[in-house]
Amino acid sequence: MKKLFDSLVRLLYPHVCLLCGADLVEGEEQVCLVCRSDLPYTRMHLEPDNRLEQLFWGQVPIQRATALFYFEKGGMVQKLLHQLKYKDNREMGVLLGRCLGEEIAGSPVAEADCIVPVPLHPRRQKLRGYNQSRLIADGMAEVLHLPVADGVLKRVRANETQTHKNAFERWRNSESLFAVGERESLAGRRVLLVDDVVTTGATFTASAKALLQIPNIQINCASVAMAI
Ligand SMILES: [Zn+2]
Q1: Listing from the earlier edge strand, what are the strands of the sheet with 218-227?
Q2: Residue ranges of the domains in the chain?
Q3: Distance 170 CA to ligand 1 centre (A)
Q4: How far apart are CA 195 and CA 97, in angstroms?
Q5: Dist. CA 197 → ligand 1 center (Å)
Q6: Phi, psi dihedral angles at 53 (to 5 degrees)
Q7: Positive or negative CA dihedral for 202, 205, 107, 110?
Q8: Is 224 helix (H, G, I), strand (E, B) or coil?
Q9: For residue range 134-171, what is the model confidence (pLDDT) as tens digits?
Q10: pLDDT tens-digit profile of 122-143?
């Protein structure tokens, strides 16, 4: 009976690596250790003035920023994020968040009082059923032992499709996307703002601008991936 149950579980949740198809062994989740070590880590958390931080220059003052992986079209990281955003694979968000948390633990970018996930517009969240950045934040919170402050930052306008816009249009389109509630709760705090993927930095910049209405707030940013 137990054997039958185990087989059913395996059928429902195949224990093979999402990237290479190898059987997963005990302790591996979704991605095998070989693929995990082959992922394109940026190590930007160790690099002041890195490429992600440069996206904020002249826009908004933040402290430190990093991304866990480089994102390439058709690459391994795109596959993982596709699972998270379009395949209802919520556990992937928590898993990626744990990886990101483990990577930055002890580095300046992890020096924060709480984690703030970049919100989705409520309509988008209703369609997807969850906010992928919240799941990433939950995974990071487990590793970094920080609370998640969800709900302080709100998305007040859905962004139109960004695909056919140039960098300036994307940037302008992302202005006033966010609003801040309960300002007092984060006054004087160091927040770690979290998103799934960075392309132009427009979403991070707009989120940070909104958060900077809070008195004496300090902002670090971390994302799972950065497009190259
Ligand atoms: Zn693999």
Answers
A1: 65-71, 218-227, 190-198, 114-117
A2: 12-39, 42-227
A3: 35
A4: 10
A5: 22
A6: -60, -35
A7: negative
A8: strand
A9: 999 999 999 999 999 998 999 987 665 555 666 655 55
A10: 999 999 999 999 999 999 999 9
Protein residues near ligand 1, an ion, with CB under 5 A: 17, 19-20, 22, 32, 35
CA 1 – ligand 1 centroid, Å: 30
pLDDT of 176: 75
CB 117 within 8 A of CB 133: yes
User: Residue 41 Cα, ligand 1 centroid: separation in angstroms?
Assistant: 16
pTM of the model: 0.88
Spatial contact of 155 and 122, defined as CB atoms under 8 Å apart: yes
Q: Contact 227/197 with Cβ under 8 angstroms? A: yes
200 Cα to the center of ligand 1, angstroms: 30
Query: How far is the centre of ligand 1, averaged over its atoms, from the C-alpha of 147 (Å)?
Result: 32
pLDDT at 11: 64
Please name the fold of domain 42-227: Rossmann fold (3.40.50)
The whole-angstrom separation of Cα 69 and Cα 40 is 5
How is residue 181 written in tokens?
A: 């509630």
Side-chain-side CA neighbours of residue 192 (13 Å): 31
- The angle at the Cα of 135, spanning 219 to 65, to the nearest 5 degrees, equals 25
DSSP per residue over 161-203, as a string?
A: P-TT--HHHHHHHHTT-EEE--GGGGTT-EEEEEEEEESSSHH
Q: Which of 46, 159, 155, 30 is nearest to 95 (CA)?
A: 30
Which tokens go with 67?
Answer: 């991304």
CA distance 41 to 27: 21
Distance between CA atoms of 191 and 149, rounded to whole angstroms?
A: 9
